[in-house]
Amino acid sequence: MRGVTPEYELITPKNLKEALSTLDSEPDKWSVFAGGTDLMVFFESGDLPAGHWLNIWPFEELRGIEVSEDSVTLGGLTTYQELQDHPVVQKEFPSLCHAARLTGAMAIQNRGTLGGNIMNASPAADSPPALLAYDAEIELIAKESSRWVKYCDFHLDYKKTLASPNEILSKIKLPRTKEALLHYYRKVGTRNAQAISKVVFSGCAQKKGEELKNVRIALGSVGPKVIRCLETEKLIEGGQLSQELIENAQKKLCSEITPIDDIRSTCDYRLKVAQNLLGEWLNSCGTG
Amino acid sequence: MSRADKITVSFLLNGEKKSFDGYPMSRLLDILREKAELTGTKEGCGEGECGACSIFFNGKLVNSCLVPLAQLEGAKIQTIENIATNENFKKIQSSFIENGGAQCGICTPGMIMAAVSLLKKTPDPNDQQIREGLSGNLCRCTGYTKIFESVVKACQQLGVSS
Amino acid sequence: MGHKWVGSSVARKDGLDKVTGQAKYVDDIEFPEMIHGITIRTSIARGVLKNIYFDEKFNWDGFTIVTAKDIPGKNIVQLIELDQPLLVEKNICHADEPVVLLAHPDKDLLQKARDKVRLEVESLEPIYTLQDSLAKKQIIWGKDNIQKSFLVQKGNVDSVFELAKKDSSIKIFEGEYFTGAQEQLYIENQGMVAIASKQDGVTVWGSMQCPYYIHKGLMPIFHLSEDKVRVVQMETGGGFGGKEEYPTILAAHAGLLALKSGKPVKMIYDRAEDMAATTKRHPSRTLHKTAVNADGKLLAMDIDFTLDGGAYATLSSVVLSRGTLHAAGPYECENVRIKSQAVATNIPPYGAFRGFGAPQCVFSAERHLDVIAKELNVTAEKIRRINFLQKGKKTATKQVIQDEVDMNELLTFTLEKTDYHKKLAEFKKHNQTSSVKKGIGFASFLHGAGFTGSGEKNLKSVVGVQATKEGVIEILAASTEIGQGTKTIFAQVAAQAMKVGIDQVHVVQPDTKKVPDSGPTVASRTVMVVGSLVESACLGLRAILLESGFLKDSDTNEKVTQACVQYIKKFGSLKHYSQYKQPPEIKWDDQTYEGDAYAAYTWAVYLAEVSIDPVDYQVTVDRFTAVQEVGKVVHPVLAAGQIEGGVAQGVGYALYEKVIWKDGKMANNRMTNYIMPTSVDIPEIKVYFHELPSKYGPQGAKGIGELPLDGTAPAIMNAVDNAIADIAKDKKPLNEIPFLPEDVMQVMEGELR
Fold it and tell me: Strands C473-476 and C505-507, how do they pair?
């Protein structure tokens, strides 16, 4: 491995309060280290900028899944396995469970955290499209502040987010609904497990008669950040599901995503497959 | 260039309390292999893809190449060397020997840890569950077929098979 | 009588150590004062090394630095062409070519030192493809880039093509087929530990397939005689050919650092370096021009087979040879011409990988046959049945087939076991209404066991057997256990020959100080060739005991042990060697490339069922059936394991594993980006063995290690063709692997923009 071990400081603050205090006093010096499943990989390939890391793994305040009448709130350190094991998450947010199940494999799922995944801000991340489809909100806390932001506003550009250097992601809130939802999640990877996605698609909508309402369409690996395709959603919103609508939606989708050729796949493939995924979902909504 | 100070971390290793000095970013894999001299856990990729470094961290299957020393304080770590001493888990190991589950053996310790982890959670897994439970462990020799058979036969041996 | 160990699935000899984590691989051992070594490599693919600069601001205290100047003997990697230097002196022929070796006790400091060494180079224009090499865009090897070439001729293909101009009943079909590079991806990275001194010589411990290749290679580099070089094989975590020739380089590097530092040196590659710098399977291009009659009977086969050899010849000539000899498949044809060449490119040298030239050729031959069948409107089954070789018929090298094999029967068996005809019809119907396309396809092929022609004769392999004071039977052979089961198989063969229990036999860990040169662990020769020598050595030892009077012919088990103990008490030691003798009936001409290419062949039919997802274009192999005739199955579980593992590698070869080169460097040299199948990507694999005992192997066994790499990819691609050919927008026949979803999409959707 290429990482030069002595060059990395990784300290465990006494508690969350001290962590936030340290972050606040030297925000450009310190970064946050959660489950390590992204950071350690960068470290070992020699690609982690040498630095100073705060270990937040021991802080129980950042764990736990709370269920209230109108939302499910997951702690930032919730692992992929923990969220898959939770009955309410399984039942009401199956896309998120599906995403977690396809992230790496067992060993990664026992250590990788939802908060870490969000803050790492990879455009190819598996869970974020599901979070977008479910209108997630996230809580960012700092020494003297805490705020909730809509997850759909969180990612600004490639690996650039709304979070300030002195903030830690503490909670992810998923609004619950009594309405029946049509959930869709599909990850197209390089293989069926331990794969980085080539295209990720998550959709969510309510069906009212022949129409889809509150349509959410979210994708990953098709641009510099995970996105909601707002124009495509608008096109479908309230419209009658028909072959023509589906084809128009697919065309619109193409204009909203900006995939590239890279080491894993091609722009052409991503464009076509993204359209296929949308088609697969909308067709199933029609018959479902 | 920052220079970290060495730290001393104590954790339970295969049932015994141990302390290790090292840099905070030192990989658990290296602590096990070099400091604890437990070379049963292997390095295959250094990127959390192959699973050859799998161990139990507080009872959960994780890749030891991705765990830094600084996060081990008070943890409970078990490696393949410890699994060998458990009567039930021994049946899994014998099954691998008899049924062709091990060929070159380099993936085997990690694969057995994954199999044990799978059976702890799902005592009588079906084919799909076995495949998924082991999907984080790459094997280049067996084509996985005899590994699946070894797990199935182990379940029969353990009396959990339906 | 003695127990029949051969044919039963005894517990693996090395199983317990492997499942408990006790087995010792090279990275598991340590020596007092041991230091670590790394390699500094070129970043350009072609050029001249002008100078090496060591950053003056870096503290080099405690570092051992080795360059070509430090080589006591010849700066040459001993193989066939002697064209490859151990360390770059002046000419740079590929990226990641080794230039400087560094050693230090502190692994972290070593990593830090990596970018403190600067290579001053002058670039030259490189070539990266076999097409550019054939076109001689640059001359980078020898006079014409051609590392080796062969010509096999039987009958007169040109006369048939001439005839075809006037006779319209003769149809000619041309095709062009490509296979890509493939990384062996053994899960244990390459590694060596070396101790060296001028007085005592060099000893290396490491991950390897061929201890004597390393032994032979180290002698000229260190200018040492045989007895001053010792090579010990550690438990080896997979090889597949990747640890056939490459380890000699790593052993020499570690040895040089050990010599200069005076300390034991350990060099273990990390995954990125192993993938980038070591050998891979040769990419290939095969051109077929084939004349057939209306029924598909082969009248003439004109085959032009090219391998991309990479920057140095390494084993290209032998890979080319095997490919050439397998290019015409298990078919009879009066007129065959196979023209083959291995050409150089500025890519890290390609080398041995299970199959060794045959996977490339068999893919082309089997795809081409299916393409011809389709064009002629003849079934894939029929075109093979009317062309199969059988006993008494001649191959392309005019070898008369001696096996009683009946390929028609093997094919019938396979098609029946898999419900082929029923599924063919079912899938056709299914595809009419479903967007998920299903297909079924097969490949028929053969694989020669052992070294080609006079290869085994030249190797003159030796195996020894000895008894210890306690009466334990020890097998002394250089064949390495690399997962395939050598230790167990040899023990079975020996136990049966000696008429003792399997626990009374111990296969000694290969160490050139202790075992004779039994030849390399390659070419599907270990059971057939070396196993035969194990058998004859043991029979010889038993004969000695019988003659001494300590043993009666009917004695078994404990009585044999006692006889050994008594014999040794009286005579001091009990040992016997057996050496390979080429059967007199095997005749091969290296000049004309004619005759008995291999002493024995295994014969096979592999069949795949696939489905193709219309949304993501992923090809999934739903079911795979592998049927082969192997002489004798020595250990049913191990044998099936070899086939299943090989099929999995073949699935990767066909559908997942693509080496991406960028400016001559491997761009996807991480496991994240080089995709091998996981447990959820591999189909159900059904394995069937047929047995027609061969007189050349122990109890009739022939070699099977490489066989599965030959037939898997073409079976899959024939199935894919069956699934989508009718709806494909791109009408060009499927002719290239790896065939990724992006390629499937291209075929199914045509050009999108």
Answer: parallel
